[in-house]
User: Fold these one by one.
Assistant:
Number 1:
Amino acid sequence: MLLFTTTLTGAEVEEAFIYRSSLYCWTYGGALRVYEVEDIEQAAERAAGELGLAASYVAFHSRGLGATPAQRQAIDDVRRHASDDQFHIDIDASSVRHWEQHVGLDTGSILDLLLYYDRMHLATDAGLFSFDEVDATGQGERRLEASLRIRESCFAVGGGLGTIVASCGEAGLSLLPHAHSREWLEARPQKVSESSLRADVGYGAVVNYTSRSEYEFLLAEFAPNAKSRDIERVTRATLSSSPQVQRELGSSQSADFVLWDQSRLVTFQDGRALSTSVIGSGGGERVLNRSRVISEYTTGGRPVLSAHRVGRGFVLELEDRLLLLGDDDHAIAQSGPVVSIRSYQSSKRYLRLVSLTGRNGIGLLGVDLGPSIW
Amino acid sequence: MVKPAPTATAAGLLFPATSDVPEYLSRTDHRNFAAGDRNKWAKSCPPPDEYVVFADAHLAVWRDSRPQLWGIAHGLRVLGSNGEQLAKFPDPSNATDAWHGYPVSARDPRREWVHRPEPTLVQMWVDAGLIDQFDGSRIRRGKV
């Protein structure tokens, strides 16, 4: 397992999200700042030569998609000859070309960011704002116009199955359908739960987390004969657990964090990551069928604040560090707290990337689990 | 700040009221006997320091919409034995009761909302220079 950390130092950025070929950031001053991935790659090569090429290959070119021959050669060389397994590259963020636009929104704090079907969604204290046609190639010349879609404080925003899910804390979970179409502009939020910290969408369900470890399972129903599989409504599933799962997981109160991922629930508790399959037993019932331990880790008693799958591994966020869990081992990926962190498992190109905003700047972590996998 | 001399009581150390700060009780049960590891003042934050955290909160009126004061020390210094960096001081039930408080963290299980100060208060701390925008953002996200 190799870890390449490229840091754009000095970037005072609260949120970062990589989408298509650009890195979108929101600064503490309320400006949207956009870097081109290609410019970051060139800067990494200038800063670190072959190591920079290898770091870019891992971070930005899953399965070699779009990689240059020099990047392919570099990662082969590093895999074969490197004596270390963690590499750090610092790039002065001000030396990397970017454009910036002050949007002038009275948002309060920015709490989450999502780019989905070419729209940008910003979860803030003041609500959920959305921007149409965010066009990095326009180099900021087109004025960004925001629409306020939800007026309650919005703590997290997610997307999947053609739907935006907005978690508004004690104001509940709302769905906004048709996120990929013009119908989006008229779509009204549908409140589907009374409390929501965050939500995951995918594999026929919306999993709504009412705390870091407690959740409800909402089954997605799709409009019949629709050309696209957009969520029309959700219904709350009745959840039960097999005896094996009850033995393995115990009480949900002992779990630190739960994640809905690839049609399984991944639970992080007591130093173990457990994968639990979820099967239907008819109608609106779902059974947590079987749990198995997929990784073990030590946190020194610190709770897991968030977890993000990257490839076959996970990055765990603790209060003062990030842990990288691989198949057979785990390591400290980064020391220090972060504001935002995310991985990109819906992307073809960025499957090995974790982006974060830390005190030093923007971190771009490329996790290399070896050539046989990626 | 001049700290009044406390007197020992059965419930803890009682700091008498001053002209600016009401009576405050550093409760023994939030030092030694609170259930589990949470919500106990750290040894590195002895009662006189605990009192200062409260007094600062009272004098600066660090409130949000809920019936309590919130405490914080410069630079997010650790206040609690479980690494808590914020404190809560609930409004006393009766006007004649002494104030008391305890360290809290939004990292605690199922406390993601109740132990998270509201954004306007967090901005006050940033504007006062007690914390920077990075820590302010983490507090707003329930990571502190």
Number 2:
Amino acid sequence: MTPLSILALATSVLSAVLAGLWLRSHAQTRKLGDRLSAAAGQLERLQVSFGRFAPEAVIEEIIASGVPTQGEKKEVTILFADLVGFTALSEKVEPARLVSILNGYFETMAAATRGHRGYLASLAGDGILALFGALEANPWQANDAVHAALAMRRELLSYNDTLVAQGLEPLAIGIGLHHGSGVAGLVGSQDLMAFTVVGRTINLASRVQDLTRDLNAEIIITESLREKIDPRFRCHPLPATRVKGISEPLTIYALSGWEGESEITG
Amino acid sequence: MTAIQNVEWEECLLPVAPHPEIEREFKESFGRIPPGILCVTPCEWLAHALPLTNHTNGLLVHTDLDFSELVWLAISQDNSCRYCYAARRGFLRTLGLPEARIRRLEQESFISDARTKEGRAIDFARRLSRSSPPLTGKDRQAMLEAGFSKGEVSELAFLTALIIFLNRFSTILALPFAPIEAFSNRPLIRLLRPLLGRVLRGRRRMGRSENLDAHQRSGPFSYLVLALDGLPAARRLRDILDLAWASKRLPERTRLLIFAVVARGIGCPLAEAEVRRMLLELGIEPDEFDSILAHLGSKDLEADEARILPFARETIRIEAGDIQRKARALHEHLDTEVLLEVVGLTSVANMVCRLSVICEEP
């Protein structure tokens, strides 16, 4: 072979090798790009899904810094709800049916809460904790919470029609609401964490909910909440009552409805 | 597939209403008539305000035009506005950007790197859009300390607020995004893309510093307009506000109450104080104002006001499908012109009440 032909051959081989390397690199880059696109899309969808469990700002902080957010002091309205008659029902109905009934109840109550800008913070047994004004500042949280309570009452009446049609006893509900300040944040451990509010306000709301059975009132609100709500809500005073942890008797009201709507009984 | 492509989107709330004069104005400003936009023509001030939102015709002095597209994508995505997102995407494709480059832009706008200047700007814009909590003078100060000039921050804030205005009414009315997506994929458009891109790039221009005329230094929300003085944004904001205020379709009191509700809901004391001042001048009693704002209702409200004010609240933080259904429900009680007036005013209110960050002290 002449030197020229050797040079030409070498150049061809080198070109082929370089072209091959370039193609391989290009393919790898494209693959990486596709994976990055897919990862970004998954992250976006994950972020949207997690919006059910924690506020958007909290999720973004976790993504950015990898640690749970600090607590923040906020004005909040707390709603506790508990089923009356569920224990008796649980003794009559087989487990699968019981879970189905409970889930149907929770779905109904969750929709009523969400429809009034409440955040369903936890479900414990047959109990519900909903927060208003905890995720985002809400100057109308007091009215929203009380409207949510009335909506929950209405929806339960409708749900009861379904239960009665199935030959089951209707359920009743006891709802306690309170307004005050609390510390909102992600609370828990590595194993279990939830966005909630801690402090005296939430404890008091829970005590108020307990009173619904003793005082035979479906929805009870505290004075501090009554001062904030629209005067068109109908409430009547209940006897001042002592609750654990509070030195003075509590001024509370039974909520009976909204102006222009028929009274709720019980 | 990005999350925005899964966002629920109803049928367009209103039919297209041809209007030759407004159509000419759109063509002059945008080069064509954006699909579905002619449904707003029954509300003339809103239709005339839309060309003022064009950010590529001398609005921006400090903000790079290509970067402004990134801001547009980020905020429209954040607000789940499928219409504005599709419009921006379509525009970028017509400009000649390859699909892969646009997808990278989408990723960059979604995952903004706060270590870079662009990332910080996107983060600021996003937080301003959400206003949860509302941005304050401290946030503006932080941007200045990060190396942004006063003009850059003000302009970025105005651009974001403008996008919010467009996102709001586009979403509430459920303007159709599918024709926009289809347009940029048409074979003829793809063939002519290099030429169209050159034409579009040629039409884009940066602005120059300019001061307000004397008559533009007063009027509703003048404190905001004056804070933007020196930028073309000041004149645009003044013009949009003057258009909205010139309309007599709703009583002045109702218009102001709409702004008051949005200001209270976002948590903007400056805007709320401005509206309160104007309502007191109109003769509303302070107690009445406080009561209406505290409960979004009162026995003293007119029937339409009693429906409009809760709806104004709904526009502060929106989910597309939900606000579209609420708008449809409101339309059962209000005629088209009044509904559009409400949609336009709530969109302007959401723009204005988020913009106060440019005025607040740290």
